[in-house]
Amino acid sequence: MIQQLELRDGRLNGHEGMAGNVLVYVNPGEAERKYLVETLTIDEHTLNSALDPDELARLEFEPEHVAIIFKRPKNYSSEDKFLFKVVSTGLFLFADKLIVVMADDAPIFQGRPFAKVSSLEDLALRLIYRSIYHFIEHLKAITVISDELEHQISRSMENKYLLNLFTLEKSLVYYLNGINSNGKLIERLKLSAGKLGLGPESLEFLDDMIIENNQCYEQAETYSNILASMMDARVSIVSNNLNWLMKTLNIITIAIMLPTLVTSIFSMNVEFPGRTHGHMFWFILALAAVSVLLVGFVWRWKRW
Asked: Residue 35 carries which DSSP code?
């Protein structure tokens, strides 16, 4: 699928014809890939890297264009089951157009960074900048979900909440790798500012991006460390809840077994003193009740 946009007067607008200078390819098909590789001379390996979620962010200079691969969070859905994924996006910057290649359809041009864009180079930088804030937004969502799961774990002994928490921890590892990879890309962009034709404002913007990305990485690292360090404590809570339940069940079992033992003894088909006594039935009931009271007294005395 191709989305055609045109950057004009500092704003992006939809474009009906083929003259748009910003083309977005979402999961391109065979014919579209052939056009990108053969007509636009985009390296096939680099094109595949833009669609590979495991590819690292990088910057490459080609004879007719500049290739940029950066990482961004994938839009979360309920089918992901608490797994926040990271995907790659390719930017191919030509002299007169910008080609964006991505594996999933996502609104990447939304937000304040695109209120005023001066050039195609500036647009490419703002796309990377938007991914940083996208990571931050997902980190806030992960924190809220983690707090809710922790509350559920403290009240329940089901394994699914712990598994969900492990999935969140796995997501943070992916995010740390993606954010760190973007940080190295931004550093490379700053070092190659001359080749890219970036002006003083773009260099200042790159410095801001480096600071924001470092803060995003530190935030993700803090959340990851907290989540990892608290996993043992949460597992202990579940184990402790299970121990309390087993202890309570054992006490209830003992409280039931003692009167059962009393009635079983007097129910045996043997002769015992007082068998024919008229009040023997009430004596057995009283003895069974005393055994239950004895268990309750020992329970409170031992503070079980």
From this structure: I
Residue with tokens 């990571």: 135
- pLDDT by residue, tens only, the chain of 304 residues: 788 877 777 677 775 555 678 888 998 889 999 988 988 888 889 999 999 998 899 999 988 889 999 999 988 877 778 888 999 999 999 988 889 999 888 888 877 777 777 888 888 999 999 999 999 999 998 888 888 887 777 676 667 777 888 888 889 999 999 999 999 999 999 998 888 888 888 899 999 999 999 999 999 999 888 887 776 666 676 677 777 778 778 877 877 887 887 777 777 666 766 666 667 777 778 888 888 788 777 777 766 6
For the chain, the domains span: 2-241, 242-302
92 Cβ partners below 8 Å, 6+ apart? 36, 40, 42, 65, 66, 67, 68, 98, 99, 100, 101
Single-letter code of the amino acid located at 228 = A
Structure tokens that stand for 90 in this block: 């390719």
Q: Whole-angstrom Cα distance, residue 39 to residue 19?
A: 16
Cα separation values, 240 from 23, 154, 179, 229, Å: 57, 10, 37, 18
Cα 233 to Cα 150, 154, 220, 270: the distances in Å are 10, 11, 20, 56
CATH code at 2-241: 3.30.460.20
pTM passes above 0.90? no
The two tokens of residue 95 are: 């002299």
Q: What is the DSSP letter of 59?
A: E
Query: Positive or negative CA dihedral for 265, 270, 275, 276?
Result: positive
Beta strands in the chain (DSSP E): 2-8, 11-14, 22-26, 58-61, 66-73, 86-93, 98-102
